[in-house]
Structures are given as structure tokens and as C-alpha cells.
UniProtKB/TrEMBL annotation:
Taxonomic lineage: Bacteria, Bacillati, Bacillota, Erysipelotrichia, Erysipelotrichales
Coiled-coil spans in chain: 127-161
Cell compartment(s), UniProt: Cytoplasm, Nucleoid
Pfam families: HTH_ParB, ParB_N
Entry's transmembrane regions: none
Matching SUPFAM superfamilies: KorB DNA-binding domain-like, ParB/Sulfiredoxin
GO MF entry, a single one: DNA binding
Family the entry assigns: Belongs to the ParB family.
Predominant place of localization: cytoplasm
Organism: Faecalitalea cylindroides
Name of the protein in question: Chromosome partitioning protein ParB
Length: 292
């Protein structure tokens, strides 16, 4: 990481894309590089507003308490990053240190003030968390949604920005179609990503909620949920099925994994299920049948 690459941070994040955003921020905080209009100081904690674009909504209380005890004994080693606002400062990076410092009863915290606009703040907050892979699936999906809606990214552009595949972006965004209370089960770590991915194929939200609750209450495995969903789909849509041999079964499983939806093999035909027009476009994109 050269100073030449990072001293343009205040002029736009395009200068550091293709590199690890979280590494850039760590270099700045550690004093390894300087940015334009940079100032290091101590700031009253009450003057700092949390980053409104922070995608992480759940913080581990035990880990925060441990960090708080360390700060009480040794202080904050790595300064947080902030930008000046009309009233006080907006946090850019370092929310765990800020929260732990509050728990430790600290009145101020070491900080580096940098000059960023709102778009840069949002991109940094979202990209740093995505790159560090410490978001749950719902937080990651909402982060992608924000980048698409606020910055008008296409899924292809977003995939290039965050270093993920287009398919990963599409499949992650599909999680937001789940009922909000089921999404919350993931945030609270009551259900895994495997559980809720299996539920996406169902159309009935009440049935999704019912199976999700059943999975929590009975401790059902992902495989069990997948089987429950398949049984429901076959009950609602009876079709003459080809007697599956091992090759057809393997092909069917691969197709369902690739399209992230139910696939049925009937006599001389393959049917791919879709939820709505948006979902159909997603499948057509996977088949390269839609021009960018």
C-alpha cells in the first residue's frame, strides 16, 4: 500500500478499489499513511454520532465487555476514524471501539478526522464489513441492497466492487424476500443461512413462518427443512415424474443448486420454478438470455 494510492482518499474511493478497503483504513489508523485534510486528536465521545450506513446491527455483548475491560486497563490503541459534521462528528470506522469505550466509562477517544462525503462514508462502511466477512447473511444482503439503491450499481458492478460472484450477489439478495420476522431469526442466530435458503422456494409466507418456527422449536437440520419444503411443493403441484435414476437425480440437484429454486423433471421436460417477474429475470440472467 503506497502513500500515493491512499492520499487521494478524500477525492473518491475509486482510487482504492481493487485493494482491501479495511486494510487501507487500518493503515490510516496506524499512522502508516496520511490522507488529505487529516487530523489526529481526542474527541469527546458524546460528540460522535454512529455511522448511519453501518450495516452491522448486532454486536456481541461478551466481546464488547472484554474489549471494554481492556480499554479500562490499557486505553484505545488504534484511533477511530471520523468526519466533521454540522453538530460534532460522524463515525466512519471503529464502532466496536466506540461502544466499548462508552461501556468503560471513557469521556473521550483518540480519533483521526478525515474529509469524506456521504457516498464515500457509505461505501467504506459497507465494503469494510463485507470484506472482513463479519456480517450475517441478512446484514450482507441489506448492505448490497443499499449500494444498489443509493449508488445505482448493477449487480455485475457490485460483484466487481466487493470481489464476489454475480451469482453470490443474486442469491444473497433473495434472502430479503423472506418475511422480516424470519430474517430476524438469522440476525439473532436462531436459524442458519442453510435453513432460510431452503425456505425461499415457498410462496406462502405463513407456511415459511410456520416451518421456520418449527425448525427453531424442534432443532431441525437443514436437510430436514429442505425435505419438508420439497414435500410441500410436490403436494401443491403434482406432476407425472420420471422414475429417477442416479444420473437424473444428480442433474436435478445440480440444477436446483445453480438456480436456487425448485426444478422438476417430468417426461421429456425440465421445469424451473420462479416466484415473480423479477425472479424470472434472475433466472434468465443466469442463462445469459438477457442483454446488459
Amino acid at each position: 500500500m503506497s502513500t500515493r494510492d491512499t492520499n487521494r482518499l478524500g477525492k473518491g474511493l475509486n482510487s482504492i478499489f481493487g485493494q482491501d478497503v479495511s486494510k487501507v483504513l487500518e493503515d490510516i489508523q496506524n499512522g502508516d499513511v496520511k490522507t488529505e485534510k487529516q487530523e489526529q486528536t481526542k474527541i469527546n465521545i458524546d460528540q460522535i454520532r454512529p455511522n448511519p450506513y453501518q450495516p452491522r446491527k448486532v454486536f456481541d455483548d461478551t466481546a464488547l465487555q472484554e474489549l471494554s475491560q481492556s480499554i479500562k486497563q490499557h486505553g484505545v490503541f488504534t484511533p477511530i476514524l471520523v468526519k466533521k459534521s454540522i453538530q460534532g462528528y460522524d463515525l466512519i470506522a471503529g464502532e466496536r471501539r466506540l461502544r466499548a469505550s462508552k461501556l468503560a466509562g471513557m469521556s473521550d477517544i483518540p480519533a483521526i478526522i478525515v474529509d469524506l462525503n456521504d457516498q464515500e462514508m457509505m461505501e467504506i462502511a459497507l465494503l469494510e464489513n463485507i470484506q472482513r466477512e463479519n456480517l450475517n447473511g441478512i446484514e450482507e444482503a441489506k448492505a448490497y441492497e443499499q449500494l444498489i439503491q443509493r449508488l445505482n450499481y448493477t449487480q455485475e458492478q457490485l460483484a466487481n466492487r466487493v470481489g464476489k460472484s454475480r451469482e453470490h450477489i443474486t442469491n444473497t439478495l433473495r434472502l430479503l424476500k423472506l418475511p422480516e420476522d424470519v430474517q430476524e431469526y438469522v440476525v439473532q442466530k436462531k436459524l442458519s443461512m442453510g435453513h432460510v435458503r431452503a425456505l425461499i422456494g415457498l410462496k406462502d409466507e405463513n407456511m415459511i413462518r410456520k416451518i421456520a418456527k418449527q425448525a427453531i422449536d424442534q432443532g431441525l437440520s437443514v436437510r430436514k427443512i429442505e425435505q419438508l419444503v420439497k414435500d410441500l411443493q410436490h403436494k401443491k403441484e403434482p406432476e407425472k415424474q420420471v422414475e429417477e435414476n442416479i444420473f437424473i437425480k444428480e442433474a436435478k440437484n445440480k440444477l436446483e443448486e445453480y438456480f436456487q429454486t425448485s426444478v422438476k423433471v417430468s417426461e421429456h421436460s425440465i421445469s424451473i420454478h420462479y416466484e415473480n417477474e423479477e425472479d424470472m429475470n434472475r433466472i434468465l440472467e443466469l442463462l445469459n438470455l438477457i442483454e446488459e
